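Researcher: Quick one. two chains, 746 residues in total.
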Amino acid sequence: MLLQLKEIHKEFDGKVAVDKLSLDVERGVIFGIIGPNGAGKTTTIRMVMDITRPDSGEILFDGKPADSGFRDRVGYLPEERGLYKKLTLEEVIVYMAELKGVSPRVIKPKINDWLERVDLIDYRKKKVEELSKGMQQKLQFVTTIIHEPELLILDEIFSGLDPINMEKIKEIILELKRRGTTILFSTHVMEQAEKLCDHICMISRGQKVIDGRLNDVKAQFGKNSIQIEIEGDGGFISSLPGVKGMSEFNNYIELRIDSSTDTNTILKEVANRVLVRRFDIVEPSLYDIFIDTAKIDPNQPAETGENHHV
Amino acid sequence: MSKFWVIFKKEYSQVVKKKSFIISILLTPIFMGGIMVVPALLANKKSTTAEKIVVVDQSQMGVGQKFVEEISEYKLEETEDNYYDVKELFTVLASDSARFAQVIDSLRNAIVEKELKYFLVIKPEAHMVDSNLYMVTNSDNFTSIKRFEYHLSQILSGIRLEQSNVNLGVDSVLEITRRIDLRTKDALGESIPFEIKYFGALILVMMMFSMVVGFGSLCMRTVIEEKNSRIMEVLVSSVSPFQLMLGKIFGLGAATFTQVSVWILMGSLLYTQRAFFDLDPSIDRLLFNPVIVIFFVLFLTTGYLLYSTAFAFIGSIVNNEKEAQGFIFPITMMLMLPVILGISVVQDPNSTMATVLSMTPFIGPSMMMMRVVFVAPTVTEYSLFSGIVGEATLALIVVILTTIFMIWLTAKIFRIGILMYGKRPNLPEILKWIRY
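Model:
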């Protein structure tokens, strides 16, 4: 186990932000902490980084309480991002690596490779302030990984990135995983977690609601979802017998049904009223699992004072 | 420790590489020198034009005439012309008040119009009633006024003597009763002119002030910048906040040290040319006084540490420089206190007030420095436990203890404050952080 959180607890002004949370992050996995805004993801990550201290509980890295060497073995990309605007890209990368205990001699030969991968090679000698916001985000990602950390902690890494850059970062994350890096990342966007994670932990209002390997979690919920594409008004579907819930997406509708319900019955009922273009029996999405479990919609932010406290 | 050096190096080179650093190294001494040297040069400027004066005499005892004769002894430096150009000697009868009023009126006008520098009015019985003698002038040339005072005293004393029953020649009485010019010397039998000590102390205090406020506030600004750019969270995931704080304080301290070194070098060059500046040789006793030199270095170092820690504290709890302004003012006031209190301290550097203030945290470094400059050159024996050295040592201990406390306090506040955005914490919140 590379990282263990044991019953960590944190309150701000009497408000519980993280409630006796325990996590085990195995070496070499991509571990996703998911949950709506204000669920306690950032506070949890900040406690792992020793930026905030838990009120109680223990955090172990490699079986021991984190010591001073811990910081050098971790790469951390916080949700709140920023870089020295007046320095050049090269200077920023070298300085950040030096702060991780890696000498400029080791880092300098690697700079070109990484800048090339994120399409910033032409800016090596330019100042950070000349970059667009998205470019700065890629640069910051490079500064987070260039010292080859064992554990990479990424807080809401994809927020603010366009699809092309998102894809690029995703590729790099998967490559780092293949090289043995353990990646802990948080997101409130379930689809991203679903595409990347080996292991997920859902938290809601500071409490863990689901924790397990992605496949196991999904298997546990069984094939009790139906995706259908229809022409016409499907408003009646939610009131059909056996349908527990319905989420409407742009092009299709997703239904959660009782395990005892015959899917054929539902198909017949729907086909009687509207034209059915597609009818798939699928594994539930994380989004559905989350709603089923936490009984709240992850797209509706909870009311907590995230980021105002340390 | 190695991380400390990474931050140290970054903060140091960030300052030293800047053009503004080099400019300030060169310009500050010129500016400060200008403030101090130019007035001194102007004061010593040799007069080349005669000063115009008019005398109105109602005494009927020839006082005006004698005065005019005596002041015509003064000559201008270069041309050997009279220093005082007596435009007119009016002799007006005491009874002719209309004429007197008319003359005075026109003379007042001339003074206002700057056609005339002085006019002296000698009323009847001036030798008996002091208020019957006065001078109207638009000049602050106290050398001239002192001369006038001297000659008038002599003339009027002579008249008083003649009218008295003293059976001695006027000249011999004046000789017997002549005024002396009291020269002050210190215990070492030498004297350092007051101005030299005062300017010396002022230069040292100003140097301390500009270093501490200049670089201390820079420490604050870099913290604010790192907070605003949200880079702080990444920094503290790589180094401990304490390392970050110390790296900044010492890195900028090294920049301070660089600047002072350059200035000392420039000062030494100037010193080799001291003949040109017509410096009083007694300045050596300030410059090479070991007590002054040692305590200046010690107070500058500890004072810098104390204040830059205080500035780091402020930087960690505010969101922008505007918010910080409110805190900076009281801090700078404390350092400037010796300059503000000025004369009252230097007239009696061992007064209870000056002694207590020099032992007070934050005020101590500059106040004690001021006192050391005034007291140290007159001391014959140095003891670590008494006298100025003992007091300065005590003040130093106070500063060191305050600094240690400040570093402890700031370390507690810093790690929380640097990650606070938005609302500025109030006092109860800050107190809560200390207990974390």
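The interface with chain A takes residues 2-3, 6-7, 10, 229-240, 416, 419-423, 436 of chain B (CB under 8 Å).
Researcher: Thanks, that's what I needed.
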